[in-house]
Amino acid sequence: MNHHDVELELLHLEYVFAHLSATHTVPPLSYWRGRLNALRKIPVVPQQRDRINRLEHLLGALEVSRPSSPDATPQEGPARVAIRARR
């Protein structure tokens, strides 16, 4: 995967993560964890590594806030990611 493809993947994940919630995610959070783990195996520039770290932090927060029972209410709303304007 070249840097352009990594950039497109990061933009997509940033968009998706801005709309995820701990209780209503299709595909499941484990799917998104796998996509982030795949990016970890690719050489990226420092700015992209920072964005991957930020996404992992957001995903971790969603995983922790996931209710343990079906009757539990979500602790947090959708994760919000500040998406930088790309030119």
Task: Provide structural commentary.
- The chain has 87 residues and is mostly helical.
- It has one domain (3-65).
- The protein has three helices and no strands.
- It has helices spanning 3-17, 29-40, 46-65.
Q: Care to give the gist of this entry?
A:
The chain is mostly helical and 87 residues long. Helices cover 54% and strands 0% of the residues.
How would you summarize the topology of this molecule?
Blueprint: H1 3-17, H2 29-40, H3 46-65
Helix pairs in contact: 1-3, 2-3
**What gyration radius follows from the Cα positions, in whole Å?**
14 Å
* Approximate strand percentage: under 5%
Our measurement of the CA-to-CA distance between the termini, rounded to an integer number of angstroms, reads 21 Å
Helix content: 40-55%
Q: How many beta-strand runs?
A: 0
Mean pLDDT across every amino acid position: 80
Number of helices: 3
Judging from the principal axes of the Cα atoms, what is the shape? elongated
Low-confidence stretches: 69-87
Strand-pairing-aware structural class: mainly alpha
Please provide the ordered H/E string of secondary-structure elements.
HHH
Major sheet details: none
The number of domains? 1
